[in-house]
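Good morning N.,

You mentioned wanting to compare the apo and holo forms, so I went ahead and generated the holo version with NAI. This is what I fed in:
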Amino acid sequence: MRTIVIIPGDGIGPEITDATVEMLKSLNLPIDFEYHTMGANALEATGELIPQETIDAIAKYEIALKGPVTTPIGGGFRSVNVTLRRHFDLFANIRPIRGFGKVPRRYDKVDLIIFRENTEDLYAGIEEQISEDEAHSIKVITAKGSRRIAKAAFEYALAHNKEKVTVVTKANIMKLTDGLFLESARKVAIQYPGIALEEILVDHMAMELVLDPSKYGIILTENLYGDILSDLGAGLIGGLGLAPGANMGKDVAVFEAVHGSAPDIAGKDLANPTALFLSAAMLLDHMKYYKEAQAITTCCNLVLSQPSNFTRDLGGKLGTKEYTKIFIKRLREVLNA
Ligand code: NAI
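and this is what came out, ligand included:
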């Protein structure tokens, strides 16, 4: 029996984690769930945004499924997500972007995966107030950090028979930092002679993805650009409700959707849990439950092939609970087929 740490989070987090745990339980796998807190609700209950017992549980079980959390703006709080990723050195943020079923989208064929460096860049949180009129933020890029995310992207390309990796930077302007990221990617690419390294500047990439995403597959990039391009990618496939993700370190892995805590729809049974379902599929894949992981993805395609199954963010009418019920029923059919 393996234990997964469940962190419901804030806003829509508890609704979509409840739905996801229900979906996972329906698979009858030898998995236990242990609940821990993080974010605004943890702050209220314990005075800490990330309680020590949550850190200890993640360290012990090395695998977590996390709902989105709200980081209070200002007040000297460091982002919960940034702190967590740095604490466990979750250096690879892997975010697949794929269209499902009949969800309305601009392009039918979108099949991207973003490999985003997750611990450095402007997210290192080194900021300084110089005067009332001036503030600085320091961009940190290391060769070690750049090489290991590049290696993760190339290893994925190798395992999935892909011909190229597209590295995205702004190395023409930030010659030292982005220059180092690019140079590190080039050095890693040499070790993979069958896979091309395509180099694109981030502004150009934003336009390219909107014009024709089918030209791209694996995107390798820094922390900030990766964050922005993942939301852009979510926009290409019908919205944030469909974009999953994984934060991978050497030992620990934390799975979560790209989207945030969506306070505007929290507690109203309006959240689309699909992004967290797909994050759970990535978790099962990581645990080597390949059949069940694939079944969840297949089920997304089947369920979302019927517009009557759409949640409100996709233009439909279903609430979180009703959608989850339909999804689980269909998942059982997929697994029994
Ligand atoms: P957001 O992703 O929470 O919401 C953006 C828009 O998308 C909203 O209109 C929301 O209703 C909609 N949306 C998001 N997920 C949805 C879903 N599953 N189903 C239906 N609609 C959905 O981004 P926002 O508003 O910028 O951030 C809100 C809070 O979330 C902030 O406190 C932010 O710090 C936090 N956040 C947390 C993240 C995490 O824990 N991984 C990631 C991003 C933001």
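Residues 6 and 215 are 37 Å apart (CA to CA).

Happy to go through it together on a call whenever suits you.

Best,
F.
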